[in-house]
Specification:
Layout (H helix, E strand, L loop, with lengths): L20 H18 L18 E7 L9 H8 L5 H32 L3 E7 L4 E6 L1 H8 L4 E6 L15 H19 L17 H5 L2 H6 L8 E6 L6 H4 L26 E3 L15 H10 L17 E6 L4 H9 L4 E4 L12 H13 L3 E5 L23 E6 L36 E4 L5 E4 L9 E5 L4 E5 L7 H15 L5 H10 L20 H12 L2
Parallel strand pairs: 5-7, 5-8, 6-7, 8-9, 9-10, 10-11
Antiparallel strand pairs: 1-3, 1-4, 2-3, 12-14, 13-14
Helix pairs in contact: 9-12, 10-11, 12-14, 13-14
């Protein structure tokens, strides 16, 4: 086995350092045999249907030289590097990920060039957040690729609606509207005078959801999210004062039609549209999911009476369009995001072996210091037990947040756990007999004010609390576990603003350890570890800096 600073073997003594001995035992008894079986010469190294017929299909080629090649590697890494600073771990991880991707590509480049020349491979795009590449490939190409020693597995891409190696063309009208939104945002930021300054709490209206998770107590203790970047992986953002003030600004990029920072993207001022491969991440339609989630995570005080909606009201917001695009993950890691707020989930989709690509991506993302969070889903009524929380929220290192209503009871729609990982190459550590306990935490499901167009929900029960005179304001009515996720993203930002050197997995562990138990004694399949307590989580993060 090739060894380096990140591929040390997993000694039995390391089990004693793992936070959950049962998980450690599961890794020894289930993962190692499963991985050996998956890599056995008799086992297929591709999805079988890729070998049928003659037509090309979208594939993802997983290379063998991964930072975390199997289910045992990430827990071992967390145990071995538990006390190291996030910044140092991030620097090493980014270097390793790029180095491994380049090294692997060098071993297969000539063969891939032959397959491109024969028209058996087309539209290829390389990735480093998972060492591999995506393309269209014929069965003949798949057979040739699985014969290469550097290739671990060839997956059929099964995400709904798009493929990783092609963008979706944007309409001319969409481009025009997005350009106008970007211009408006730049104009609003141009008149901003320096830093935002300290958060003034006197006279502010604080909605019940922020009080329920103790965000206001964390602010009074000095944790506001200052210096932290939350990447919003969602639909976009309505350009309005309480949100524009929060925008992350790429410090090395100017609006001049040039790629000033050399990252391959021109004028990526506030993020990027990975679905359409454009710079236009701002602006959104009449049902802007991203706007509501952004306001819950980072919304600034605004309106009349002056109301604060953001759990982390001094954190910055990087805006990423293209939910499920691996390039968005790469951007978040490379451009210094601390938290990734995920607003997508592929429920009732048979992803098959492809699930493992996203688990690897998220474990690599965590090594880069990015805490991934999202709502657990709204499928408590519609999907069977064990199938209510889907990718990416079913990944062990991703924080999945369930939801309660104002009375404190769980919403009937809130997705319940558990989740399983027993049918995916390289990942068989949570079989149905010993499943993964999800959700992880609980936040607020709805019934509190969010920023949006005030005409949103016409014909529905939506209360307008305040309108700016131009149709934008505070509304109460929208509900869903999509809103629980940004609460957890905000709490993660508060924790990191108190201790920026916390590794991503320690943020998750401390967040869970400081929750208020809501259900059975201990973790359960409805509330996870319990209700978020931002002040306790921040204090736990600070305590580690004092040791």
């Amino acid at each position: 086995m090739r060894r380096g600073p990140w591929t040390a073997p997993f000694p039995a003594t390391m089990l004693l350092r793992m936070p959950d001995p049962r998980a450690a035992l599961r890794l020894l008894l289930l993962v190692i045999p499963a991985v050996a079986s998956a890599q056995d010469g008799a086992a297929p190294r591709c999805d079988r249907d890729l070998l049928d017929g003659e037509a090309a299909r979208p594939i993802f080629v997983r290379m063998a030289d991964q930072l975390f090649p199997d289910a045992a590697a990430f827990p071992a890494h967390c145990a071995a590097h538990a006390d190291e600073p996030r910044s140092a771990l991030r620097a090493v991880a980014l270097h390793e990920l790029h180095t491994r991707a380049d090294r692997s590509w060098g071993t297969v480049q000539a063969k891939v060039a032959e397959l491109v020349a024969s028209k058996d491979v087309a539209d290829l795009r390389r990735f480093w957040i998972v060492n591999g590449f995506a393309c269209d490939a014929t069965p003949a190409a798949v057979r040739a690729l699985v014969d290469l020693d550097a290739v671990a597995f060839v997956h059929r891409q099964t995400q709904p609606g798009f493929v990783q190696h092609r963008s979706q063309p944007r309409r001319a009208r969409w481009i025009e509207e997005s350009e106008a939104d970007e211009k408006t945002a730049l104009g609003m930021l141009a008149v901003r005078k320096g830093d935002e300054g300290d958060l003034e709490l006197d006279g502010l209206t604080i909605p019940w959801n922020l009080e329920r998770v103790h965000a206001n107590r964390a602010w009074r203790d000095g944790a506001t999210g200052e210096g932290i970047v939350i990447a919003l992986h969602d639909s976009g953002l309505i350009v309005a004062p309480p949100l524009v003030e929060a925008l992350w600004r790429n410090p090395a990029e100017e609006p001049n039609g040039k790629d000033d920072d050399g990252n391959g993207l021109v004028d990526d001022l506030f993020g990027w549209d990975f679905a359409g491969d454009t710079r236009f991440c701002l602006g959104d339609g009449e049902r802007s999911h991203g706007t509501m989630c952004a306001g819950i995570a980072v919304g600034r005080p605004f309106g009349e009476p002056r109301t604060i909606t953001g759990v982390a009201p001094r954190a910055k917001l990087m805006v990423l369009r293209g939910m499920g695009h691996l390039r968005a993950y790469e951007y978040a890691a490379a451009m210094g995001a601390h938290v990734l707020s995920l607003s997508y989930m592929w429920i009732d989709v048979e992803l098959g072996s492809y699930r493992g690509v996203f688990r690897t991506a998220h474990e690599h993302l965590a090594a880069c210091g990015v805490v991934a969070v999202g709502g657990a889903g709204n499928f408590g009524r519609s999907s069977p037990p064990g199938k209510q929380i889907a990718l990416p929220k079913d990944i062990p290192c991703v924080i999945a947040a369930a939801g309660i209503v104002e009375s404190g009871e769980a919403s009937p729609a809130s997705s319940r756990g558990p989740c399983t990982w027993d049918d995916v190459p390289f990942f068989a550590d949570y079989p149905i007999t010993a499943p993964l306990q999800k959700p992880d935490v609980t936040a607020c499901f709805g019934g509190f004010p969010v920023w949006h167009w005030t005409k949103f929900g016409e014909g529905r029960r939506v209360e307008v609390r305040w309108d700016d005179g131009h149709g934008f304001g505070l509304i109460v009515g929208p509900r869903g576990n999509s809103f629980a996720g940004p609460h957890a993203a905000g709490v993660a930002a508060l924790m990191l603003s108190a201790n920026q050197e916390l590794p991503a997995w320690r943020v998750k562990a401390l967040m869970e350890a400081t929750c208020a138990d809501l259900g059975e004694d201990g973790r359960d399949a409805i509330y996870g570890a319990g209700l978020l307590q931002a002040d306790a989580a921040v204090n736990a993060a600070r305590d580690l800096t004092r040791r």
